[in-house]
Amino acid sequence: MKVRIYILVCLVVGLAGCKKLLDVKPHSFSSDANYYENGSQILRAVNGAYGSLQELYTNDFWALTEMRSDNTNYQFDESDRGAQQREEIDEFLITSTNNYVNTIWQLLYRNIQQTNVIVDRADVVEFSDEGLKNRYLGEAKFLRALQYFHLVRLFGEVPLVVHEISDPEAAFSEGRASVDEVYAQIIADATFASDNLPEAYEDNEIGRATKGAALTLLGEVYLTRKDYQSAVSALNQVASMNYSLVPDYGDNFDPATKNNSESVFAIQYDAALQSEASNFIFMFGPRNAKVQLTGYNGNLGGSNIPTPSMVDAYEEGDLRKDESIAMFTDPSNSSFEEAEAFDGSIPFIKKFYHPPFLEDGRANENWPVYRYSHVLLMLAEASNELGVGDPHTYLNQVRERASLDPLSGLSKDLFRDAVHHEQRVELAFENHRWFQLLRSGEAIEVMTEHGNEEKGRLSRLSDASYNIQAFKLLFPIPEREVRLNGFEQTQGW
């Protein structure tokens, strides 16, 4: 059955006029048939595709990856009209009309359409340097692979669109591709990227996708697919490159030290440009903080608030805790039930709090997608599952930086638990926890226990909250897409 990919058709109309895109240096993205005539125009289109990632990471992606997990919840306020949307995600009460889910679906497919345009058009553009052409294609395919990796983990079977949709009559597919088909495309794209991207760039191009970023993506894909041999192979290549842990964990998030030796791939933001600024603390800061916390007289979001289990997850003496979480103390906290577990304080994510801010609320933090510590922990996980080498070596590099004692002699099962715990605290609030729970098969058990803890402390939660079943591990396809495309909804929804 052929189905109409409605969101992509809309994008064909709107992309040519899009102006809010990354300045690497940025230029607007265009799908105009007469636009792609030389390499410079392909480069501008690639820059535009990077810019679209900014919107994804500042528009609710964290809700589906962190707030969905046991890492964070939200600060409830009855006057907040959008609270229901967060409740649905956090408490497993999701519906197919949820605005957060609909936004992420649209953004991911909008971004994929942009990369498809680049891949299709670049083949007919003459380049004096074939290597440069393949680099641009590698960047586009890396970005496409990353978007599909998000989609397949969030939604399961999804439409697999790998060519430009240029008009409504062409906007058809054969329905939703299987999970295996989607992963095959991801691996093909990421492999091409790893074969054609450089290991590093000159200063004015830092932040673009590299060979290391593509191999790290491949490593995580193989780890997710339980192909541990391929994961170790890909991640070992990254480990042989010029990456290293920075001595101070907090330097990974401080705008003054962004794009350091630990950064494998990060979404780039620049507070000097209004359209390129990040806004994470303004979404994540306690609702009642405003001037006291940020020096910004606007409403804060109260989203992605660390849970008690997250705050308690750090071992005694772990230097990462104070770099990751801070407490907001104010008499107005008494109005919020969330403060009771913290003696009247409300925790917030310090990783994305580096004042002073510009008066209009613009921030300068990048969003870390892949850091070298993540590579080491995935390498530890894959090596343990494969039974090769000493995975403690990789794990202990990360623990040593956190000022924790090394681990040794753990059995395979105990090491698996240890590395999963280490991933939780090392990568807290960086959009990896939900995917880790899915990959490990621990999501139902961990989230059921978390739900019981939350219902024990928050009176607003109902008996229906955290009723976690297997089908709820995937988000429902947005209702609009189901109606317009004739999809069968994901089983169970």
From TrEMBL:
Belongs to the SusD family. CDD domains: SusD. Residues 347-493 form the RagB/SusD domain. The keyword Signal applies. It is found in: Cell outer membrane. Transmembrane segments: none annotated. Gene3D superfamilies: 1.25.40.390. Residues 22-223 form the SusD-like N-terminal domain. Its main location: membrane. Keywords: Cell outer membrane, Membrane, Signal. It comes from Albibacterium profundi. This is RagB/SusD family nutrient uptake outer membrane protein.
